[in-house]
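Recap from last week: sequence in, structure out.
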Amino acid sequence: MTPILQLFIFIPLLGFIISLLIPSKNETAISRTAFLTVGLTLFFVLGFVGYWLFNGHPVLNLKEIALFISKEYEFLVDLCFDKITVVYLLVGAFLTFLVTIYSRYYLHRERGYKRFFNTILFFYLGYNITILSGNFETLFIGWEVLGICSFLLIAFYRDRYLPVKNAIKVFSVYRIGDVGLILAMWASHHLWHENITFLKLSNYELVHEHLAEHSYIGVFISLMILLAAAAKSAQLPFSSWLPRAMEGPTPSSAIFYGSLSVHLGVFLLMRTYTFWEHQISVRILIVLLGLCTALIASPIARVQSSVKSQIAYASIAQIGIIFIEVALGFEKFALFHFAGNAFLRTYQLLVSPSVVSYKIREQFYNFIPRHHTIEDSLPKKIEYSIYLLSLKEFNLDSFMNYILWKPLKNIGRKLDFLTVNRLLLLFIPAYLLGLIFLFINGNGSEHPHEYLPGAFALIGLLMILKSFSERKSPLMSWLLLIMNHFWIALAISFNEKFELTEIAFYLSGIIVSGLVGYWGILKLKSYEQNIDLNQFHGHSFEHPKFAMVFLLACLGLAGFPITPTFIGLDLVFSHIHENQVVLAYATASSYILAGISLIRLYSRLFLGPHVKTYHETAYKSS
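Predicted structure tokens:
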């Protein structure tokens, strides 16, 4: 029974590869490939679930493959199947099947028809990997796939300003959630001394034994899991990203932000429930977070002028209630609530293009005055204050900007004195000096290894902040991103047991991706003279294949699961000691901000309205 689990990942992967090979003009073959891929998966899911229930519905765990093994570390792909997986798998297969049928006609003759279906199949692959994951490492693979699919679907209309801008914004919030997941993985390595599976987490005696001696680490892991779940499911203070994600085509909004992806934060909480269920403070925090989100999102939904925004905030409020249900231990009720909310929001979003005509007809022929509502019983000052705050969406966007993004950009701008030549002159000698210290430390010196790893990691973080705020030279931004990885590798090298082969494994993907991207920027500069980062250039319109190659280079440099760097990143964190908080924080922040900076760099160069005036461009507000 257990080996059949591989089919639920293999079929979407095969369909995605076949879809890539079909010519973009052959709409029928593209849509049929997606339709058959998802339909075949749904057929196998229904058959397997029936067989699984008939045989007593056991919890299944499949150790798929060990992608990397060393003396102290093993990157293990593990698959798990239980009642939580069943509900998510059934809902995901059925709704994706419906949306592929709908999209065949909705996107007919759309210029990005093939791109849309390729992304949907890739998303479905990432979704299945996530819900079938049996440990954090496998879950993180699917988590990253969903993140890049989110960006591509929101920026589907890539010749417009707002979709691209909002795609970057949503991807940035997703990366904040990635910080939580990465740090949770790091802390769990030290708590369990292995890549713990979710099946082992359900063992109460094992969990209680470890948490009894390391209660603070347990709380830290739980809080990081909550951070990842809140960012993924648009809970406070991250709620404002979900309406912005509706810039993509209606089918992608329905399947991604209405039903499946937005509920994966709930999935993460349910999957790790046995770990934090006895941490009362964490459960209270989850209840308060869900309650505040529901209370704030509900009035915002009621005053939105866009039907998609109304649905988005209504969904956020319901997910807040599901968070409360999970924290209170009502797992079955939460699963039922998830399925109902997913089906309802998918239906609402798919019919949303017709809502305007329905409302116009209703105004003319069936107008009904507004009834007395609960707000009318409040004092007028409070009622009007709530109304104005709801119109402004409680200033959640401004809050995130002033608390997080603006300070990071200000720090990066302090380094504006750097040019490419100064960068090489300053940091290459500094790096060589670091290598000398490493050599001395490796030959028995007692000193600087205690504070040098954190210092070198902070230098790498400063480079990322400079790249994040860079507005002039794409080449400078790219070099800073490459150098950051070398500084991290140097910082981790001071810790024992981080061998030269492991460093080479980590940096191999960085070097290849870095060289491809460097060549790409120089090549683009030879085609187009001005390629600064002050605006969107839209060069994918004239250089689509070139844009694709550069995107792959960006993903490789960001540690996406297409290069050894993805495994190398987890390998790096496995060598960070539990008392090296500065090193862990700087490394995690560098990884997250590097991903945002790379997507921003790609978007500025290749997406948005074209800079050449002879191309048709949409208004910024369109």
